[in-house]
Structure formats: C-alpha cells, structure tokens
C-alpha cells in the first residue's frame, strides 16, 4: 500500500485547486452569448471594469427568432446580433436596417416587420404616420422643419445606429431641438 507524506498530499491538493480554478475561469462567454431571453432575469454577476470595457450588451428585438439581450465583442456588427438571436423571422424586413453598422454597448437592435405584417400587428391609431426608420429622404422633407440637410442627417444617423428607438433619439440630429421634436411627434412613428 502507498503511503503519501504530508508534503505530497499538500502539493496534490494545490494542483487540484489550481486545476479547478483553471477550468472555472476558462469557460468565459463568447460573442453572441445570450444573457437572458425576453421576459427573463439577468443575474448580477458584476464583471470587472476591464471585462465590461471588452464586451457589448445588446438588446435584439422585433422580427427575430429569439429576441433577448446578448453579449458581443467590440467590432461585432448588427448582422452578428441578428445571427445570435436566431436570424430574422419570415415576417422581417431586414432591408430597412444597416446590417453592417457596428454594435454599440447598450443599443437596441430592432428588426422591423414587413409593411403588411406591421399593419396587422398595429392598431389603426397610428396609421398615416411616417416611419422615421424607413422613410425616404423625400418623405422626410415633408415633415415640419425638416429640409434636405436634416433629412439626410436623419438617414445617416439611422444607418449608423440601426435606427431610432425613441423620439428623444432625434435630438442627436443637428438642428432638431425640443420644439421641433414636439412638432414631429404627431407625424412620425418608430417601427
């Protein structure tokens, strides 16, 4: 029978603990890992500041197969977010989104529905409103206080950022302030 000295047992225990620690820390999240699905609860595993700066937390919603919140790496694009969410549904209109736009931490990537799907899904209360995320330059110019330069700025912003998520996002456009935003609210929608 083998008899181990106390020193050999301590060395073996240290290697065992190091092995467990190595296995535990090598299982980090990969790009596109879901943090929680829609309606779920995210655990508060506060990452270190360095880890936080190296990941992007993105909310993917709309006409995708698995809407939810996902983790990505810097440099990932909207197309990567759509893939992580299981791809677009048959009701999606992905041509309305700049798939090549880079992801920005905290952003929502909302994939719009095809026009006929949107009409079925939404009540008639906002019919006749212009979709700020889909309108052409000419259509945007018909809005109050929106000329050619602002219309072009709106298009450039939505292509760079994946669209407008809420009315306040329009305040990022040069020349659109609170008063102009209030005038626009009754003419636009965000899907």
**What's the total count of β strands?**
6
Share of residues in helices: 25-40%
Q: Counting H and I runs of at least 4 residues, what is the number of helices?
A: 7
Q: Strand order within the widest sheet?
A: 1-3-2-4
**Nearest-angstrom radius of gyration?**
24 Å
CATH names the topology of the largest domain as Ubiquitin-like (UB roll)
Name the shape in a single word. Answer: elongated
How many strands, which pairing sense, and closed or not: the largest β-sheet?
Answer: 4 strands, mixed
Strand content: 5-15%
How far apart are the termini? 75 Å
What is the annotated CATH architecture of the largest domain? Roll
Taken in chain order, the helices and strands follow as: HEHEEHEHEHHHE
Return the average pLDDT rounded to an integer.
Answer: 79
Low-pLDDT parts are 39-44
Structural class, from helix and strand content?
A: alpha/beta
**CATH class group of the largest domain:** Alpha Beta
Structural domains: how many: 2
Structural summary, described in words:
With 191 residues, this protein is an alpha/beta fold. The protein folds into 2 domains: 28-38 and 48-114, Ubiquitin-like (UB roll) (Roll); 122-191, Photosystem II 12 kDa extrinsic protein (DNA polymerase, domain 1, Orthogonal Bundle). The protein contains 7 helices and 6 strands. The chain has helices at 6-26, 49-53, 78-84, 115-121, 137-140, 148-161, 178-185; strands at 33-37, 56-62, 68-72, 108-111, 130-131, 188-189. The strands form 2 sheets. It has a 4-stranded mixed β-sheet, covered by helices on one side. Strands 5-6 form a two-stranded parallel sheet.
């Amino acid at each position: 029978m083998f008899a181990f000295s106390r020193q050999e047992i301590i060395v073996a225990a240290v290697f065992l603990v190091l092995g467990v620690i190595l296995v535990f820390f090598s299982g980090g999240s990969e790009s596109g890992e879901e943090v929680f699905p829609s309606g779920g609860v995210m655990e508060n595993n506060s990452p270190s500041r360095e880890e936080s700066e190296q990941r992007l937390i993105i909310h993917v919603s709309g006409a995708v197969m698995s809407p939810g919140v996902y983790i990505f790496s810097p440099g990932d694009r909207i197309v990567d977010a759509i893939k992580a969410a299981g791809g677009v549904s048959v009701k999606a209109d992905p041509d309305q989104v700049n798939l090549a736009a880079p992801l920005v931490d905290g952003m929502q990537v909302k994939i719009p529905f095809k026009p006929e799907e949107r009409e079925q899904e939404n009540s008639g209360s906002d019919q006749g409103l212009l979709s700020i995320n889909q309108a052409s330059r000419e259509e945007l110019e018909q809005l109050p206080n929106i000329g050619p330069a602002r219309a072009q700025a709106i298009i450039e912003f939505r292509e760079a950022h994946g669209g407008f998520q809420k009315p306040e996002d329009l305040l990022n456009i040069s020349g659109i302030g609170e008063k102009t935003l209030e005038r626009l609210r009754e003419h636009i929608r965000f899907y």
